[in-house]
Amino acid sequence: MGRHKQSIDSITLEAIEQAISSIPNSSVVRKLTILSSYSRLKTEEIAKAFRINPRTLFRWISQFKDQGVEGLVDKPKGRKPALLTDEMKRQLVQWIETKKDSDGKEVSWTLDKLRAELEKVYSVKISKPALSVNLAKMNIRLSEHSPRISRQTRENR
Prior knowledge:
This protein has about 160 residues and is mainly α. It has helices at about 10-20, 25-35, 45-50, 55-65, 85-100, 110-120, 130-135, 150-155.
C-alpha cells in the first residue's frame, strides 16, 4: 500500500500565492513558488524540476499548513562561536600598534607571541592559522624584520 500523499486545497494554494507576493525573503519565495506548482504537477516532476527530495516537498507542505509562511523561513544554522570577541580583537590591535604586551613591556610581535598573550590574558587557545585569518580580516599584517643588507651586496647591485 502506498504512502498517503498530502495535497494542497484551493484555500492553501491561494494563501501561498498571496504570501509569494508579500515576502521579500527569497528562500521563502522559492519554497512558496515550488509549493504553488504542486497543484499542477506530480510530486516526482516537481522534485526533478527543482532538484529537491520529495520528502522535502511534503515537509514544506506540512510546515506551511501548520505555521503558515513562518514555517518556511530557514532556521538559523548552528555555528561554532568565534574564538575572539570584539574586545579581544581591539586588544590585539592595541598590542600590535603599541608594540607592547598586557604588562606594558616592549614586544616584537609574532603569531606565537600573540597566541601566548591571548592565552595568558583571556585564557583563549587559538591556532596559528585561525589567528592569522583573524588578523587578515582586520587588515593587519605582522611585519617581518627585513634582514640587513651588507655594504658589499649593495655595491654589487
